[in-house]
Structure formats: C-alpha cells, structure tokens
Amino acid sequence: MNRRQDKPPGAPARAAGADDGDSTLLDLRILATSDLHAHILPHDYLTGCAEAATGLACLAPLIAAERAAAGNVLLFDNGDFLNGSVLAEVAASGAAPAAPHPAIAAMNAVGYDAAALGNHEFDHGLPFLASALAAARFPVVAANAEPLDDASAIAAPWVLLRRTLRDRGGRPQALTIGVAGFLPPQVAVWNRAQVAGRLRLRGIVETALDVVPAMRRAGADVVVALCHAGIGADAAPEAADPAAENAALALARVPGIDAVVAGHSHALFPGPAAAEQPPAVDPARGLLAGRPAVMPGHAGSHLGVIDLTLAPDAARGWRATAWQSRLVAAAAPGAGAAPVAAAAAQAHAATLAQVARPVGETAVPLTTYLALAEPSAAVALVAAAQADAVRTALAEGPHAGLPVLSAAAPFRAGGRAGPRHYTDIPPGPLTVRHLFDLSPYPNTVCALRVTGRILRAWIGHASALYRPVAPGARDAALLDPALPAYGGDTIFGLDYRIDLAARPGPARAGTVLFDGSPLDDDQPFVLAVSSYRAWGGGGFPGAGPDAVIHAGRTTIREALATYLARIGRYDPAPRQGSHFRPMPGTTVLVRTGPGVAAHLGGRHAVLPPDPADDGFVQVRLVL
Fold it and tell me: How confident is the model over 305-319, as a mean pLDDT?
C-alpha cells in the first residue's frame, strides 16, 4: 500500500506520547457503513422516482476517494445490509435472480473487508441468511449470537485481518486487526420464529468482556467493534445491562477496544449534540467514553471515517496514540458507482416488474401524515387485512367464536428517515409497490388471546408516544420524538379516546367501548397483530409466546393482497375526529411531512416550516 498522503481537517484527539514527526507511526483509516438495508441504487421503489443521494452506489465514489487519499484503509459494514428495502424483499421472495443476493453482489463490488450481522439479517430465517452469505467475499461476524448446533453457525464471532501496511517512513509493517460484531439481544424476541432453538443471544457488553481479551491473546494489534446498536446509557462494563438494546457507549468502555462503529438507531455520530446525552458522549469530536466512534445514518446516507495513528508498542505490538472521527454525506453517484449499479442491475429490473403488478383499488387516499393523531385509512386497511387473515385461520378452531380485534400502527411516519418518509397513496389503482409502502417488513400475521383488561393496558402502553398536555395549553408538542411511530398502536374494533391530560398508562384509555358497551375487563378477545408485536416487540402487555394462538406464515403484505382481491375496492366508511378526548381551549403541534397540506381540507392549520427543521412542517390540532 502507498504511504498515506493526507490528514483530515480538524485537531485529532491524542493519547499521551503522540508524536506526529515520528516516521515509525502508522496511519490506519477505517471506513464504515451501517443500516444500508439493501439500498443499493438511488431509486425509490415506492414512488418509482429517482431518490436523493442515498444507497451504496452513491457511497462507492466516496469510498474510492478515501482509499486514494489514505494508503492504509479498511472498509466495514455494521449490519442490516441484507434486508429492509423493496429490492431486498423481492430478492427474498424469489422474484429476482436467486444468487448472488444483490446486496452481497454490490458489497463484493465495493470490496468490504468485513461485515457484522444486524437484527434484520434474520428476518427471512437462517437458511436464507446462510445462502446469501455464502457468496460474500468478506468475513461476517456476530459475537453475541451463539449457535446452539453446527447447522446454525452462520457467522464467526470475530475475525483477525492480517495486513501488511506502510508506516510514515514507507516501511512495510505487519498489522493484525481484530474485528468483532455485536447485535441487539432482542433478536431472540423480534425474530423468535427464526432463531428459537438455533441461536443463543447474549448481552453485548458481557460478550465483549469475553471476546476482546481472546482477540488480543490471538494477536490482535487493533480491535474494532462493529456494534449494531445505538449509543445507549453509560455504565461500567461489569455493570452494563445484558438486555440493553443500545449499548455502544458501554461497549466503548470495554478495555482493549480501539474503535467503535455504532448503528441500528439510524442516527448520525459525530453530529449535533443530542439532548440528555451522557457526559461520556462527545458528539463534536466523535468520542464514546474517549474512544473514537461513528454512526453513519442509514440507507447509505453517510460514510463513517475513523483515523487511527498507531505507534509501535513493545507490550502489544501497536498502540493507538491519536484518533479522529467524521462523517461524509453521500453525493450523486459518479463514475465509481458503475460496478455497484452493474451488480444490482438484474435485481433492479426484476423489482421494477414485480412492484408494478396490480392488486386492487382504493376509493380514498391512504396517508400516514397524521396517523398518530387521527383516524388513518392506511392504518385501518392494514388492520382490516390482519383481522381478515386471522378470522380465516381460526374459523374451524376453538377460538372461532371470539370477537377479533386488530392492532396496527403506521410504519412510514417520518422520524429519522426524513420528511418524505410517509405513506401518501392517492385514490385509484393499487399495485404491489403500495403494499410495500403499507408494510415494508416481512412481518407475518399472528393472533393473541387477550382480555379486556389487557386491551386497556395495551392502549395505555401505546399512549406513551404522546406527551402529557395540560388543559388550556397552547401549541404543546404532542409526540415524544424519542419513541418510534411504529409503537403507536390503534386497536381497531374498540371505540376510545386518549386522555392527554393523564400520564401514560391504562388510565389514559378512559372509557373504552366494544360494540357500543363499556369494555368488560374479563371478556376474552382475539387480537390480530404482526409477528413482531406477537412475540414481544415493543414490550406490549399481554404479548409473548404464552399468548400466541396463531403463529401465521402469511406476511402482512400477502394478507393485504388477499383482502384486496376479495373486496375489490377499498372504500371504508369515513371516520372523523381525533384519537384524543376533547380539551377545550387546548392546541397541540404535530411534526409531519409537507405533503400533509394536500390532505387537510381546512381542518387544521399548517405552520410555516422551520428552515432548521430538515423540511418537516408542524400542524396545529385543536383539541
């Protein structure tokens, strides 16, 4: 490799004894992607339009430029690279060329050195994952997903990359880089149907306390942790919560780790300081507990860059003496994108053909701009399809006589994905791409046996999405931005209104009606839900294996297609009002996409957009 030619702008953090003039120092640049979700080309399959600068094809020229600027470069991916886009779902369905998987083909074209598994890698099961990874020309790691049998050994816990690099004096130096992967232990819940009895999911930090010393003993000069988790709470390694979903900060405190790549939460780090971050988080310099770290967004929006300066160390070979972290935003694809585009070309064509297939018709717009504040025909359609599938599945069984309710929430409702991340389907023909819009993940339809008491608690749990609002407040923020929209379940088949003046909990449900009468706490019901919710995703009371009476294999998209084929045209009775109890003299603000303006019909006021708010607008609701 050539001697490094540049240094990134800004002052790097330094360890004691760093000396830029020492020709024996070795510079190592680590490039990282995370949460690509098989976004390869800058194309939005939900709208059929070219997308902004996102996707691996848009990062490929940046990767090439970083490699050209620094001779000693490694490229890693931090997980959720295989699933989570329309392209990936079509590939998994068999409607696209079977091998290699387009995400793997694209990553091979770019030339990754290693990748970690994320939680969505397990969405289609271990056999599918093993088949996809078989074509990878790079090692894949997952330290805290321990196989319970040989057939489940999908990835190594860690890998040692042995490279010959050049120091600042131009001399070749042998360097061994240890790379370990970590993912949320909640995979045991979210993907229970795929991993139960196959994998044991351990806590992130407790696993690192075992594997990092093992990597050092095996000869690792540098240890990079590919942590498919958000930053999370601060804790000493020995006191870290083994069930923590987001543990990158606690992981950074594990002795022997030199750099951390975080992800999963789709956030950006380094970046603007987030509210209430622990003191050990330095978002300006990109440090977690003093260790360099990056979190490069999602869908190929950014490339993470960590520069390490290494000095010879008699005790362990090499020691990091200075470091710097930064992000580079994706740009429009240039010449360097051609190999990536070629790798995905066949899958892209197959996806375009698949999503154009007709499935039905809607008489009303299907939008999610205000789905968390008032009735949404889009969410109601998903709920109706779930209930229809459950009634069919249970028609001949012991639960056939129970009333079937359905719980659903909007998937595409803004958040970190931006102001265009909303469902906005006009009246008219529906195609397969609209089904992906309504249900982007391969969740299946399941059913729970619940009681009225559980339903009341379910409503209270979902209501945590809403901040408490004092009567008479003016323009109070309605939604808690720390909570995801897909946790905002509405239970269809019940009539209720959330009391925003109350604290989150069952009391917020107020009077709940079923079939015109107050809900009986002891009455049994069947609740149609997604597989994610059924097995415990979101922590809803009453969910989990003991309550599951139907573990369906029909995806929600398939249920939607079946339901639309049966009814022909979706034309629901209009539902007016809001999700909330009236509060005279009170107004709240909902942050949403600018497309909402076309659907208000004078019902609400849209406030002028804040130029600093990334394109979102606020809608004033009168309670």
Answer: 92
Do residues 603 and 578 make contact, with C-beta atoms less than 8 angstroms apart? no
Burial class of residue 225, CB neighbours in 10 A (0-12, 13-18, 19+): buried
* Third-level CATH fold of 358-580: 5'-nucleotidase;  domain 2 (3.90.780)
Mean pLDDT on 14-41: 84
Residue 298 has what DSSP assignment?
S
Could you tell me which residues come within 8 angstroms of residue 614 by beta carbon, excluding any fewer than 6 positions away? 418, 419
Residue 119 is given by DSSP the state G
CB atoms within 10 A of CB 445: 29
- Cα–Cα distance for residue pair 214/208, rounded to 1 Å: 10
Which single residue is written with the structure tokens 């249900």? Answer: 439
Residue 600 — pLDDT band, cuts 50, 70, 90? very high
Euclidean distance between the first and the last CA atom of the chain, given in angstroms as a whole number: 65
Token digits for 32?
Answer: 């990282």
Tokens of 406: 């359905």
Token reading at 144:
């805290």
The answer to whether the beta carbons of residues 446 and 534 sit under 8 Å apart is yes
Kind plus residue range of the DSSP H or E element containing 561: helix 556-567
Question: pLDDT band at residue 564, thresholds of 50, 70 and 90?
Answer: very high
Do 163 and 75 touch, CB atoms closer than 8 A?
Answer: no
Reported in sequence order, the residue ranges of 54-139 that DSSP labels E, i.e. its strands, are 73-77, 114-116
Backbone angles phi, psi at 470, to 5 degrees: -75, 140
CA-based radius of gyration for the chain: 25
Q: Is the peptide bond before 584 cis (omega within 30 degrees of 0)?
A: no
**pLDDT band, very low/low/confident/very high, at 612 (cuts 50, 70, 90):** low
Q: Which CATH superfamily is domain 36-350 in?
A: Metallo-dependent phosphatases (3.60.21.10)
Domain ranges of the chain: 36-350, 358-580
d(CA 88, CA 577): 38
**DSSP structural state of residue 55:** S
3-state secondary structure of 591: strand
Which residues, other chains included, contact 311 with Cβ-Cβ below 8 Å and sequence gap of 6+?
A: 17, 18, 19, 22, 24, 25, 26, 318, 319, 321
The three-class DSSP label of residue 500 is coil
Residue 444, beta-bridge partner list? 555
Residue 11 in this model has a pLDDT that exceeds 80: no
Write the DSSP assignment of 201-259 as a string of letters: EPPHHHHHHHHHHHHHHTT-SEEEEEE-S-------GGGS-TT-S--HHHHHTSTT--E
Q: Which percentage of the chain shows pLDDT scores above 90?
A: 83
Q: Distance (Å, rounded) from C-alpha 456 to C-alpha 447?
A: 17
pTM of the model: 0.92
Produce one character per residue of 552-579: b if its CB has 16 or more CB atoms within 10 Å, e if not.
Answer: bebbbbbbbbbbbeeeeebeeeeeeebb
CA atoms within 13 A on the CB side of 89: 22
Which of 292, 312, 68, 64 is CA-nearest to residue 175? Answer: 312
Integer angstrom CA distances of residue 525 from 400, 404, 454: 10, 6, 10
Which residues make beta-bridge pairs with 546? none
The Cβ of residue 311 has, within 10 Å, a number of other Cβ atoms equal to 18
Q: Which two tokens stand for residue 229?
A: 């988790």
Question: Phi and psi of 453, rounded to 5°?
Answer: -65, -40
How do residues 178-224 score in pLDDT, each as one tens digit?
A: 999 999 999 999 999 999 999 999 999 999 999 999 999 999 999 99
**Contact in structure between 368 and 412 (CB atoms under 8 Å):** yes
Helix (H/G/I), strand (E/B), else coil: 478: coil
